[in-house]
Sequence to fold (291 residues):
Amino acid sequence: MPALSIITDHYHYAITVFLMMAGLYIVVARGNMVKKLVGLSIFQTSVYLLYVEPGKIIGGTAPILDPAFTVYSNPLPHVLMLTAIVVGVATLALGLALVVRINEAYGTIEEDEIFEMDRDT
Amino acid sequence: MTIAIVRQRSLFGVVILASIYSFLMASVLIVLDAVDVAMTEASVGAGVSTVLLLATLHLVKTTEMNQVRPHLLPLFVSLGTGAVLVWGTLVLPPFGTPDAAIHKHVAPRYLADSIKETNVPNVVTSVLADYRGYDTLGETTVIFTAGIGVMLLLRKARRRNRRDDAETSQ
Fold:
């Protein structure tokens, strides 16, 4: 049953891609800037999954060395994703600061209203 | 959950759902043996991000207006890209196998030698702070730059507000 094994071996990638595309859809289709940033965070979490999932070994344990275990998951993706999480929250803070400034300048955080104001002036 | 975030118009609802989503993601990461990543995600993703988003909502309007723009094209683009990505993942190694290419490269060396070379049992810590220390240096640079950016953006706003107050009080 090759088709069935393809589905059971790879459905975790499909979940990751679903989250990724949900984030992309929010960023592209929604005009509210806070919501766009939440969508960007969802996209980011899907990238964490994309990196951490291949590092998992079935029957393995967390990469903390102990004589009781021999099989460990791959520590390298975990390190990369720790960096990504912290950088992600830094960019989120910067984006939110920009949103606050835009709200002060235009009185709104809806993209469509901002475009209309720009067209009028 | 994700679909609820897409549909929800109240931004408070969106932020709280995003926080719960982060906690769920942290539990998934624990199941995937990434305990350090899960701890960071629970504290930073569900904690700090939620506080930042709520602080922003304190300053802006909290309901999203009804959409006037068409949403068929973004939906189509998302579905198309997703289909291509799923198709691309079909040739990747299956889940949880120990002989995938990712487990043959530098990871065995880290696991075998880190206790000898760094005397730290947690391999994630030793790789983060020792073998890949330059990554962490770059990360702190990014945080520093972002912090400067946030301070500049918000300080300018505060000063102008104060000037407006002074003008109205005269």
